[in-house]
Write a structure and sequence with these properties.
The complex is a heterotrimer of chains A (210), B (404) and C (495). Chain A has helices spanning 2-25, 29-67, 72-89, 100-118, 120-132, 137-153, 163-172, 174-198. Chain A has 210 residues and is mainly alpha-helical. With 404 residues, chain B is of the alpha/beta class. Classes of the chains: A mainly alpha (210), B alpha/beta (404), C mainly alpha (495). Chains A and B meet through α1, α2, α4, α5 and α8 of A and α4, α6, α7, α8 and α9 of B.
């Protein structure tokens, strides 16, 4: 049993991990087909596991409805709208423009997404106040650069000599430098983590060492 | 006198109308098949553009040596040099004066067993050279396209992986022998303990997010590993952790990891499966729901680990407004500025990948952490060497790093 | 009808979501739950039609659609098993079996990530940083060719994807190189101009030195306060004549220079006007643009010539004035000498003054020559400097140092002490500049999103609006919030 719980998964991770590394270097059509097949498997697993997600969603809302916890009505809304949307998705009129799914998308999904996104307009200002209260050399550096680059972006900046070219220089040189080093570091971290997984050193995704 | 001039003319014709040297036709190495390469040396004098422009090369193919020829391409001597395709020919200096062309190997009419095999019929290739002095022919030569088992132009990548893998193993085995490894302080990770303690004192939960990517992203894997370490501490402090998920697979892994964490801490009874749940896959409705949760539950600490997109600020700013201790860790370099602005601590980029090893203090993991440092030393050395050699006019470090 | 209804729904939901800015409230909560329901339903539908049907169902039931490649339907056994294993999570006793699926996904992700990350994030980034740090740009043409090359590269990148990071970086680089090439060209021209002024001044130096000789000699005679000898008298006569001639020549030369300056100034003005007209009238064609650019270039050259001529004319005018003064002084001294009497004390003192002044003007001329020559050297070295160390080289160096120091900051197993601590601190500064710059760069984009949302709500010209949707909904929601506020007031202290 311990083997089935521990060794088999580690072996699966090793086989697929190692196999896909080697696959990268093998241009043969057999290898390309193997890659395509594996990618399709991942998609299929993703779809099946979405059922799991929906199961979890139903469980958590059903629990609230059943126990009539405060605000259980909202759970009814979530489940009801979910079922309505699925019904709209399978409605025969969806082949034509103006079908119910598209209507739902255009008038609920899309405006709400856009609104959440646009809240960033407020939050970017309030977060700036939060950040710039800190009094340290680093925080001041952050603030000053942010202001300079912002001036380079707005029409006002055009009236300040050098603002836009200095801002362009900041974006082109120090920003690129930091970004490059960050990318390099992240890549090393990701590769090291991936190696740890393939060789079974990192196994916490299976729930710890035992 | 006239005869002498005519003789000179004839000699000149004979000299320039010669066929190019070293005409070769072969299967393109290191590919999925289907392509053959023809290459040859440029005519003498081609380095002068005026001369090169007056030379024309014509490539034709056929299924048999004296069969029906089909013209494939016609181009002047100024084009199709081997240095245009370093992925096939590398960076040799002589590539500047040699020509090449990549051709599709001839196959029978579509369908049948040939489809997708990368093989071709024996394909005859003929090169005609038309210069002011006359026409010469090289070939015909024959070659077959076939798929290959090794992409030679990616060998440098393979060597780098091999070196990194070997160094990692060496450092891990060193760590096994001598488990006392120095690791510099990472304040964001030290603060996690404090955050969990605070949550216990206040009797409020900890909110843990895994980022918005699926389980196929290494940062999500790193984040889930951190969750494993955190759950152990949460269990031993007798606190509560909430993990709303955006991906069903991530949810399942989180549940598994949390249960094991609670078990490892000796409190399997405290584990509640419903503390990790699925909300939705869509970015902004997920955020809307998590923001609502933050305002209603007022968690004592919010931990954001993993990869985030534009919603980072929506999450961190709402969390900040509720007064929670906030610790973020992300490798999403575009979102780092917002976490830095809103959170008390931020694990920057690579620190996210160091977190699991740091928290676990396992020698093996710490050993592999040192391989990341070894990688950085290697990169720094490469950059220095590259800058120096490039200044001296030798770009070979750049060539060594080339990817195709 | 459904469009109008749609707008009412969309506007109401938009306002529900915005109400979050006030505080958590039933409207937001309603919107939030509805949003979750819609998106999860929507993703199920999409996944069903775009993933399940084409990738699984039609493979098992080929008559329903296309065949899986090479009819290998049995290969589905493995993934479907993996999927089913995930579902074991619903049965606690078997839940551990889902680990097999996790292991598959995690192993797959790791294997895929290693070569991909190594090539795109390490090799490409490192190759981009490997550059000669101090390249000597050989000449102005080279600098301008670089700038043009960068411009072309930027155009090319913009053609591929105008919004991409690469395109932006290429544009920034091209702009930088263009400015540098212009600065170097300016420095080169300034150096040429300075040389021309210096040469002119150097040519004047011996002229002035020769011109003061009669005055110095005659002043010496007067200062001796003795009756003049016949020899001295004839010298006085000759000196007087010579000084007058010299003054006349200097005046003429000054007039000539002034005239030249005036002419060149007029020509420059005309060229400028013509160029401006061409520029304003240039069409979309490359030819007319090139012609206008060429005219602007000509105007610039003309303006430079005029400026040099102006400088010379000013200096020549001053020299002429000095020559005239000198001529008057020589005449005065000659008169005293010619009178045959010994000079008075006053006359001797004045002669001394004149002599000092003359010597000084010779010194001035010499100094002007030296000063302008030094100016020319200065300008030349500035030009050299510009060409030698373009600030793109400094930028390349800063970029290199930045990459290195940030990498050093990320060292985990090396103690941050001594030089490592200093370098990693520099790395932190680079990071902070990055965070700040990136924050500042995003602000405008985010504000425009907000603006977009607001104008969606408030665009009364949109027929779907039915003119009143937003105001009515706004009144209802605000009313609701006020009502809830008062309703909950009594309960608040308890919470």
């Amino acid at each position: 049993m311990g083997h089935l719980k521990r060794t088999v998964p580690l072996a699966i991770a090793f086989i697929f991990g190692f196999g896909l590394i080697i696959q990268y270097f093998v241009p043969h059509p057999v290898s390309q087909r193997a890659l395509g097949m594996t990618q399709r498997w991942v998609t299929i697993v993703g779809f099946v596991s979405l059922l799991l997600g929906i199961g979890s969603l139903f469980q958590s809302h059903w629990r609230k409805i059943n126990a009539q916890v405060p605000g259980w009505g909202y759970s009814v809304v979530t489940l009801g709208v979910f079922l309505l949307t699925v019904a709209a998705g399978f409605h025969p009129k969806n082949d034509k423009p103006g079908g119910p799914l598209l209507w739902a998308f255009n008038n609920t999904y899309s405006p709400m997404s856009a609104t959440m996104f646009s809240l960033l307009g407020f939050f970017i200002a309030s977060a700036a106040f939060r950040a710039f209260r800190a009094r340290s050399l680093e925080a001041s550096l952050l603030l000053v650069t942010a202001v300079i680059v912002m001036l380079g972006q707005v029409p006002l900046g055009a009236h300040i000599p050098g603002a836009s070219s200095f801002s362009a220089w900041i974006l082109g040189v120090p920003l690129t430098a930091a970004k490059r080093a960050l990318t390099l570091g992240i890549a090393l971290g990701a590769i090291a983590t991936a190696l740890r997984i393939i060789f079974g050193i990192e196994r916490s995704y299976l729930g710890g060492r035992e | 006198m006239i005869r002498a001039a005519a003789f000179v003319l004839l000699a000149a014709t004979a000299a320039t109308a010669q066929a190019p040297a070293d005409f070769k036709v072969y299967d393109r190495p290191g590919d999925a098949g289907g392509v053959i390469i023809a290459e040859w040396k440029g005519l003498p004098g081609e380095e002068i553009p005026e001369t090169a422009r007056r030379i024309e090369y014509v490539i034709s193919v056929s299924l048999s040596k004296d069969g029906e020829w089909k013209e494939i391409k016609r181009f002047p001597g100024t084009l199709q040099h081997k240095n245009e395709a370093p992925e096939i020919f590398g960076f040799s200096k002589s590539n500047e004066t040699e020509h090449f062309i990549a051709l599709k190997g001839l196959v029978p009419p579509p369908g049948g067993p040939w489809l997708g095999t990368g093989k071709s019929l024996p394909t005859w290739v003929k090169l005609e050279v038309i210069s002011p002095a006359g026409t010469a022919i090289a070939g015909p030569l024959v070659a077959e396209a076939k798929p290959n088992w090794w992409a030679w132009n990616k060998t440098n990548v393979f060597v780098f992986i091999l070196i990194f893998g070997v160094v990692t193993f060496w450092l891990i085995s060193k760590a096994r022998r001598n488990p006392n490894i120095f690791v510099r302080r990472i304040p964001g990770l030290d603060a996690m303990e404090e955050a969990i303690g605070r949550a216990t004192e206040m009797g409020r939960p900890i909110l843990y997010l895994n980022g918005l990517q699926s389980m196929e992203s290494i940062s999500t894997i790193a984040s889930v590993s951190i969750l494993g370490q955190i759950s152990k501490r949460v269990a031993s402090y007798d606190s509560q952790i909430l993990v709303p998920c955006r991906d069903a697979v991530v949810l399942s892994v989180c549940q598994e990891v949390m249960r094991e964490g609670f078990t490892a801490a000796g409190r399997p009874d405290k584990y509640r499966e419903q503390d990790a749940w699925f909300i939705t896959q869509e970015q902004f409705s997920y955020v809307a729901s998590v923001d609502g949760l933050m305002i209603r539950e007022k968690p004592a600490a919010c931990l954001y680990m993993g990869y985030y997109y534009a919603e980072s600020l929506l999450l961190a700013e709402t969390g900040g407004a509720t007064g929670a201790i906030q610790i973020a860790g992300t490798d999403s370099i575009t979102q780092l500025p917002f976490f830095i602005a809103c959170c008390d601590y931020t694990l920057i980029g690579e620190e996210l990948y160091a977190a699991s090893a740091y928290l676990s203090r396992e020698p093996l993991q710490l050993g592999s952490l040192r391989s990341q440092d070894a990688g950085k030393i290697f990169i720094i050395a490469t950059l220095f060497l590259g800058a120096l050699t490039a200044a001296a006019g030798y770009p070979f470090v750049k060539h060594l790093l080339a990817t195709f | 009808m459904s469009e109008v209804l749609g707008f009412w729904v969309a506007a109401a939901l938009t306002l529900f979501m915005f109400s979050f800015l006030y505080k958590d409230n039933p409207f937001y909560r309603m919107g939030e739950n509805l949003f979750v329901g819609v998106t999860i339903g929507y993703s199920i539908v999409i996944l069903y039609f775009e993933s399940w049907l084409p990738k699984v169902w039609r493979v098992i039931h080929p008559e329903a659609g296309v065949w899986f490649e090479n009819r290998e339907w049995w290969v589905l056994i493995f993934p479907v098993t993996l999927g089913v294993l995930v579902l074991t999570r619903f049965i606690p006793k078997w839940a551990w079996m889902s680990r097999w699926t996790f292991a598959f996904i995690v192993g797959y992700a790791s294997g895929l990530a290693i070569p991909a990350t190594l090539t795109t994030s390490i090799q490409k980034q490192a190759a981009g940083t490997v550059q000669p740090l101090l390249t000597r740009t050989p000449d102005l043409e080279g600098a301008e060719a670089d700038a043009r090359g960068a411009e072309a590269a930027a155009d090319e990148a913009a053609r591929k994807d105008p919004t991409s990071e690469d395109a932006r970086e290429a544009r920034v680089r091209a702009e930088e190189l263009r400015q540098k090439a212009e600065a170097a060209r300016g420095a080169g021209e300034a150096a040429e101009d300075a040389v021309s002024v210096a040469e002119w001044n150097e040519a004047r130096k011996p002229v002035v030195a020769k011109a003061i000789v009669p005055l110095v000699e005659l002043a010496a005679i007067v200062e001796a306060k003795a009756p003049a000898t016949s020899d001295q008298i004839s010298k006085a006569k000759a000196g007087q004549e010579g000084a007058a001639k010299e003054a006349a020549a200097a005046r003429k030369s000054a007039d000539d220079e002034a005239k030249t300056a005036q002419e060149l100034g007029a020509a420059a003005g005309k060229a400028r006007a013509e160029a401006d007209a061409l520029w304003a009238a240039r069409g979309k064609t490359k030819e007319s643009g090139d012609a206008a650019r060429a005219a602007l270039e000509t105007a610039r050259v003309e303006a430079r010539k005029a400026a040099i001529a102006g400088k010379r004319a000013a200096r020549a005018g001053r020299l002429a004035l000095e020559a005239e003064k000198r001529s008057a002084a020589v005449a005065e001294l000659a008169a005293i000498i010619l009178s045959g009497a010994a000079a008075t004390d006053d006359q001797a003192a004045k002669a001394l003054n004149d002599r000092v002044a003359a010597t000084k003007s010779a010194l001035d001329a010499s100094q002007a020559a030296i000063a302008t020559r030094i100016g020319a050297w200065d300008a030349a070295s500035r030009k050299e400097y510009m060409l030698l160390t373009f600030y793109r080289d400094v930028s390349a160096l800063i970029l290199f140092v930045g990459v290195l120091s940030v990498l050093v900051y990320f060292f985990f197993s090396i103690e941050h002490r001594g030089p490592v601590s200093k370098i990693s601190r520099l790395g932190v500064w680079f990071l902070m500049v990055y965070f700040g710059a990136s924050y500042g760069y995003t602000v405008m984009g985010r504000l425009s999103l907000l603006y977009g949302r607001m104008s969606y709500l408030l665009d009364a010209s949109d027929p779907k609006q039915a003119w009143c949707a937003t105001p009515i909904l706004l009144v209802i929601i605000i009313g609701g919030l006020v009502f809830l506020h008062f309703k909950n007031k009594g309960q608040e202290p308890a919470a």
